[in-house]
């Protein structure tokens, strides 16, 4: 099956991380569906991707973090593209530094968990059946390294959310070891940003997108975990695929 026959559902495709992935997937010839709660972000994404491949980008407005709304989104996705072959999930937010736990509210912790892990669970539960039985299918989760430690003072809830997202990915690998569709977990132990905001310790979202698109293209015969610390890790994964 060539890339042009594959349809990737990119959850979080309007985000910093997701937009780089969407552009790279389109550049490799995939058709890509992106769902966002915000029409303006979808318009911005359309003008960001390469003009030559924008015809393969399908955008839909919707909320994939709500159990009720995700079913409507799923129906709209299937109506728009027929079959989905691969899913990339980069739901969440870029950064949180609201302060130490004693200064925080339960509402804030709910919001962090909802955005980082509950939306990941709700959308996985709805969309995984679309790809589950396809041995050529992939489901890729983008996660952050903040789950391992407190990155700096005041980022505690980010650690709680990121750790939950990492644990969820691990649970999926262990609960479904033999499922035909393979899970990729891409854990990024660095910041990710756009080219004109690059600084030490950050990955360019375009380079990250290239690497994630290569992983989707390559497929895998088993569930896999990839840890990215710096730009050379991105190159190493790309080179591995060329060998
Ligand atoms: N940026 C970094 O420095 C960095 C570093 C390491 C790891 N990561 C990981 O990468 C992931 C994404 O980060 P990011 O920087 O790309 O964040 P971002 O720019 O804030 O984008 C988040 C994306 O998630 C989507 N989203 C969240 N909840 C949703 C829902 N209920 N329904 C539909 N879409 C929803 C947003 O869509 P809308 O258009 O609807 O808002 C947006 O596309 C996070 O899990 C983060 O842990 C990021």
From TrEMBL:
<dbReference type="GO" id="GO:0008670">
    <property type="term" value="F:2,4-dienoyl-CoA reductase (NADPH) activity"/>
</dbReference>
<dbReference type="GO" id="GO:0005739">
    <property type="term" value="C:mitochondrion"/>
</dbReference>
<dbReference type="Pfam" id="PF00106">
    <property type="entry name" value="adh_short"/>
</dbReference>
<dbReference type="InterPro" id="IPR002347">
    <property type="entry name" value="SDR_fam"/>
</dbReference>
<keyword id="KW-0560">Oxidoreductase</keyword>
<protein>
    <recommendedName>
        <fullName>Peroxisomal trans-2-enoyl-CoA reductase</fullName>
    </recommendedName>
</protein>
<dbReference type="GO" id="GO:0006635">
    <property type="term" value="P:fatty acid beta-oxidation"/>
</dbReference>
<dbReference type="InterPro" id="IPR036291">
    <property type="entry name" value="NAD(P)-bd_dom_sf"/>
</dbReference>
């Amino acid at each position: 099956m060539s890339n042009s026959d594959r349809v990737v559902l990119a959850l979080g495709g309007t985000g910093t991380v997701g937009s780089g992935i969407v552009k790279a997937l389109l550049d490799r010839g995939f058709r890509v569906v992106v769902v966002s709660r915000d029409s303006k972000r979808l318009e911005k994404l359309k003008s960001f991707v390469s003009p030559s491949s924008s015809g393969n980008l399908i955008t839909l407005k919707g909320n994939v973090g709500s159990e009720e709304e995700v079913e409507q989104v799923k129906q709209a996705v299937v109506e728009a593209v027929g079959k989905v072959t691969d899913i990339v999930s980069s739901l969440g937010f870029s950064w949180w530094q609201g302060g130490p736990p004693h200064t925080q509210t339960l509402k804030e912790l709910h919001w962090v968990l909802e955005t980082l892990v509950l939306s990941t669970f709700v959308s996985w539960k709805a969309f995984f059946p679309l790809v589950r039985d396809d041995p050529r299918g992939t489901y890729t989760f983008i996660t952050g390294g903040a789950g391992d430690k407190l990155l700096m003072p005041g980022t505690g809830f980010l650690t709680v959310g990121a750790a939950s997202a990492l644990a969820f990915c691990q649970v999926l690998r262990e609960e479904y070891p033999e499922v035909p569709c393979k899970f990729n977990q891409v854990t990024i132990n660095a910041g990710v940003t756009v080219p004109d905001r690059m600084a030490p310790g950050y990955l360019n979202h375009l380079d990250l997108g290239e690497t994630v698109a290569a992983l989707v293209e390559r497929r895998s015969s088993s569930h896999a975990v990839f840890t990215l610390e710096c730009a050379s890790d991105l190159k190493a994964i790309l080179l591995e695929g060329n060998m």
